[in-house]
Amino acid sequence: MNNDDYKLELSKAEMKKLGYQAIDEIVEHFDTQHNKPPVARGSRKDMDKMFAAEAPEDPMDASDVLQFVIDKVMSNSNIVSHPKSYSFVPGPSNYVSVVADTLATGFNVFSGGWVASPAAAELEIVTINWLLKLFNFPAKRGGGIFTSGGSMANLTAIVTARRIKCGEDFSKAVIYLSDQAHSSNIKAIRILGFKREQIRLIPTDLEFKMSLNKLKNAIAKDSLEGLQPFMVIASSGTTNTGTVDPLMELSAICKSENLWFHIDGAYGGAAILAKNGKQLLKGIDKADSITVDPHKWFFQPYEMGCLLVRNSAWLKDTFTETPEYLRDVEGNESEINFYDHGVQLTRRFRALKLYMSVKTFGMAAFRKAIDYNIKIAEDAEALFRKSAKWEVISPATLAIINFRYHPIDRNLSEPELDALNQKISERVMNSGEALLVTTILQNQVVLRMCLINPRTTIQDIRETINLCEKFADEILSE
Ligand SMILES: *Cc1c(COP(=O)(O)O)cnc(C)c1O
After folding, report:
1. 312 and 301 together in one domain
2. Which of 94, 318, 375, 474 could potentially form a cystine with 160 if both were Cys, beta carbons 3.0 to 4.6 Å apart?
């Protein structure tokens, strides 16, 4: 470092050295991650001990900083792309998209407006069009936007729905979603300033689907009371069980009641790529808006969510707010400024990773991966069904299965079963061997596997089941 250090530069040789070192580490990680423990455990105290320090005034060697990060930071993070990472929703990712993200950051492409990067805007249009086509949304009028994730996509959907259906006054507006809907929806509703009284959590049936009868009753009652039902949020794949709400019937209700029909497909939307995807997600093309989360089951690294809308003008009408200094940036109608279609002005170039990975591997590889994921969850279900020790609680649905340890030769009470399965999960997590946590379904503590990693094998699953059985024996003999 010298007197020019305020320029925040490295020499060309130093840049290459650091870059190659980083790439070598990433490739090594991709190659060996399955041999590492997927679970990282560390208390705040442990982490403070490692990292808490004042911001240094003086420079350090870049390679040393990077090595410190590899050794201490990366090793203290869960490996969500590990084949035995079954919770919560794994992040299988793919290397091509990692390189794409590196390029997008390396060139620091501003992906907010046409004038800043026509190519980035165009690639967002092109890749959104790919998704629109998959979901059979209108090719010409339809649109969408890439977001940080599903939470932001749901927020964008709700604010758009409210703007289009309610205009400025939403004091009487009411929104309907099931008790299995993802928490990000409630969070978004709160962020947007709705009161608790404006939310109806509709109970689900024994298969975790939104009860149509209860929804109809709620809408009718609210209308009679002079309130304004304006939006139904359905799930196509709930995160807990992969359950798809009855989309066809919900769409008919929304149509006859003039409600916005949003489908949160952040988890399961990608199943549209499966062989029987149109059947699995029947009715998804009837939505006004769909959330999908490419950083889940489209195998992209974080952060990438997406909102698709039937009419792209809805986004423009909701988000356009042109300050004086952006006047000169306005192009013609067909040249989309994505800052006019969502919350963010300055945006990273998210489309690039989907674009490069689909071009490199081909859509057929993505289809195969998703078929594989759905099939392997069914294979796992078959293993549990054949065993005298396990009970399937929610069958394999969109690559998710819920189950619990429940040996038929033992007379265990419900509280004992809950405690047992909780302990199994804790011991598995403590062993570091697999990332497997519990969820609660119909008041039972159950284990859950989300199997969207195409590199997870049935052998991995068998090993994890064996591990659970070993811990169960230990616990029961204590
Ligand atoms: C994960 C998930 C979300 C939230 O998405 P993020 O990308 O985590 O913000 C919303 N809805 C469903 C159904 C999800 O599974």
Report:
1. yes
2. 318
Atom of ligand 1 minimally distant from the CA of 239: 15
Q: In this structure, are 369 and 343 located in the same domain?
A: no
Q: Specify the ligand 1 atom closest to the Cα of 265.
A: 13
Structure confidence by residue, pLDDT tens digits, 327-352? 766 666 789 999 999 999 999 999 99
Q: Does ligand 1 lie within 6 Å of residue 149's CB atom?
A: yes
- Ligand 1 atom with least separation from CA of 302: 7
Given a cut of 60, whether residue 299 has pLDDT beyond it is: yes
If pLDDT is split at 50, 70 and 90, which confidence band does 325 have?
Answer: confident
**Cα 285 to ligand 1 centre (Å):** 20
**Radius of gyration over alpha carbons of the chain, in Å?**
24
Cβ of 181 below 6 Å from ligand 1 = no
400 shares its domain with 353:
no
Residues 142 and 197 occupy one common structural domain: yes
Range of the domain at 213: 102-363
Quote the ligand 1 centre to 183 CA distance (angstroms): 8
Pocket of ligand 1 contains residue 151 by CB under 6 Å: yes
Q: Are residues 124 and 262 in the same domain?
A: yes
Say whether both 356 and 373 belong to one domain: no
**pTM for the predicted model, two decimal places:** 0.97
| Residues 355 and 385 occupy one common structural domain | no
Measured by CA distance, the residue closest to atom 5 of ligand 1 is: 150
Quick: pLDDT tens for 215-251.
999 999 999 999 999 999 999 999 999 999 999 999 9
Ligand 1 atom index nearest CA of 235? 13
Is 267 close to ligand 1, i.e. is its CB under 6 Å away? yes
89 C-beta closer than 6 A to ligand 1? yes
Tokens 């090594």 belong to 28
* Structure confidence at residue 324 as a pLDDT band (50, 70, 90): confident
